[in-house]
Amino acid sequence: MDSGVFIEKIQSDLLDVDVPLTSWDGCSDITYGVSRSVVDGNTINYTVDYSGSATLNGVIDATALPTNFSITDDGSFNFTITPDYSLINPNGDTLIVRLLGNSLCPGLPPILYDSAAIIIVPPLNIGEDEVACLNFPDPVELFPNYNYYGTYTWTVTGANPQTFIGQNFTYTPTAPGVDEVILAVDNGSGCIDRDTLIVEVFGSQVPLTIGDDQILAVGEQTVLEANQIYTSYLWEDVSGGGNTFLTNDSVFVFDATTPGQFDIKLTVFAGFPTCETSDEASIFVINNVDLGADLEVCSNDVVTLDATDPFVPPIAQVSFQWFEDGVAIDGATNVTFAAPPYVAPTDAVLVKTYRVRRTVTLTSGAQNVSEDEVVVTYYPTPVIGANDTELCGDDVVTLDATLLNENVMNYATYVWYNAASYPIPLSTNAAVDVQLGSYIVEVTTDVCFEAKLVNVTCPDQELPVNAGFRPYRISLVGTAGYNSAELTWNPTQEDQRPVYYYEIFYGFTGSVQSVRIGTSTEPRFTVTGLLNGQSYQFAVRAVYKMNNEREVRSDFSNTVFVTPSVILGTDEEKLSEKLSLYPNPNQGNFTLAWATHLGEKAEVSLLNLAGQQIAPAATLQNGETMSFQTLPNGLYIVVVKLGDTVLKQKVSIVR
Given the DSSP bridges, would you call strands 76-81 and 130-133 parallel, antiparallel or unpaired? Predict the structure, then answer.
């Protein structure tokens, strides 16, 4: 540190009290001098006295200073005073020097030739070295330790050069590096006091950033990087776990291993730990779009494909484009797509490839594009070989249901029924020997189900009705609805006789006598309360009133098979997917399993197709096997109750 002395002249004549201007350190001492400029042969005796706070505080030891000296003619006298700065008052001290001499006229008292007030200040001090940050406005404020007469000049050299004149100095660095700050105080009397400090400037004026929010699919990778060089780095996951990933690296590699939202924070330090700043970015990890495994379906089946991913953030914009065999489908831009029901040729399968492109875009502009495709194979409807035939008496005829297009099926199973005793199976062979009557054959392939009513009749057999009248056989059509079936038929009359009413039956001819579900005077009927995805069979016959008021019933119509539509995404469908029944078909023993979160125990009931309970309810554990060895062959409905949740599944028993 330098130190300084300021001179305030009170009176001046022949004397000179000042400081020597030899170096910066010259301001540490005081020199007073007395000189004469004439040669007259006279000698003047001088007396010096000292006063002021500097003598009282011991900064100046007056006892060690000269108090008398003489000058003859143009001689001179000089003396140096060195203050003890360790004792100085922080606000400074004053030394009063008075110079008196004898008068050249005899008898006159001593004359005050000169006096001076010498202000002695502490060593100049502008503080300790500092550190400044560019990451945020961080001005450097500097103050000298005294305020006296003089000129204050601040000079900055280094990374942020500048000059300022004034007592207090504030500057804001704009570039990193090392600045040397110098304050020079000029007392106006030839003394310049100085002090110096160092300011280290860290960071950058450019705000810290690790980039915008990003969106990735599982399995992808991204790199986050600080945009400036800093002393130290700390990467953290602040989305909940607060896990520290790594430190001391400006680059962080993020691997998307699981879906979710990850908020990544980088904290950087410059001139550790003085300059600290941070930035955050969110990384949204979603699943790759997945349409599931390839599908095998039957002709006319509606296939609904779903590209839903619950991890797509709600703040994102999502778009979809569906393709069929590589060609974009107009208007197919929803998260789900219902493929139209294609009819495969009877002798070949039809293969379609469906692909979806999902584009997810964040508000930051980050985008993720994912694609998946699924191959859908449409199998033709089984063409059953058996047809109506004629037979009389007790003769036997062979009905052969072997599929006419069996070569395009992986396998086929057959179940024959006598319509009069349905659903008790008659045979599980493709061919069966029968006599007069009506028979039903059900054929199941790996993906398709088809049933057919085959009538064996005698052409000469008279119907027990009025002579000449043979009731017309109705042509029935069934249309699936949601939990319902819409039945319509032709309203044709026979021999101009109006239909009295129609009877609607559940099941096939022969078995429908006990399960008539309603009547209608119009050629239409709606059946409600059905299960989506469950197959139902219906038949209709007409009732005529003859002239003798006797009611005559027509032959049964053709049997229609209706499966109420399943709307994917409904709660009912989601529940049905949670029940597994296997094997199916079986010989009376089967295992039930359901989603574990639904419960461990369930109440299980068995119903026939008419909805009647045919076995006592039982309590089963998840994965337990049921046994119904005494039940006849046929189709049944298994009802599983788990609290408020009810699951249903059709089971076929064939021995």
Answer: unpaired
* Residue recorded with tokens 């020997």: 433
Which residue in the block uniquely carries the two structure tokens 């305020």? 147
- Residues 170/140, Cβ–Cβ less than 8 Å: yes
- What DSSP string runs through 199-223? EEEES-SSPP---S-EEEETT-EEE
Token reading at 202: 């860290």
* 114: Cβ contacts below 8 Å, ≥ 6 apart: 11, 12, 13, 14, 15, 16, 17, 34, 98, 99
Tokens, residue 242 = 């607060």
pLDDT in tens, 81-93: 888 888 888 778 8
Which H, E and C letters describe 390-431, residue by residue?
Answer: ECCCCCCEEEECCCCCHHHCCCEEEEEEEHHHCCCEEECCCE
Residue with tokens 């009295």: 500
Whether the predicted model's global pTM rises above the 0.90 cut: no
Residues 6+ apart with CB under 8 A from 206: 227, 228
Instruction: Taking residues 100-111, report their average pLDDT.
Output: 72
AA identity, residue 595: A
Closest CA relative to residue 635, chosen from 417, 387, 403, 384: 417
Residue 578 in contact with residue 596, Cβ under 8 Å?
no
Q: Is the peptide bond before 273 cis (omega within 30 degrees of 0)?
A: yes
- What one-letter code names the amino acid at 49? D
The DSSP symbol for 281 reads E
Q: Residue 266, Cβ neighbours under 10 Å: how many?
A: 23
pLDDT in tens, 24-41: 333 667 777 777 777 878
Q: How many CA atoms lie within 13 A of 507 on its CB side?
A: 25
DSSP 467: T
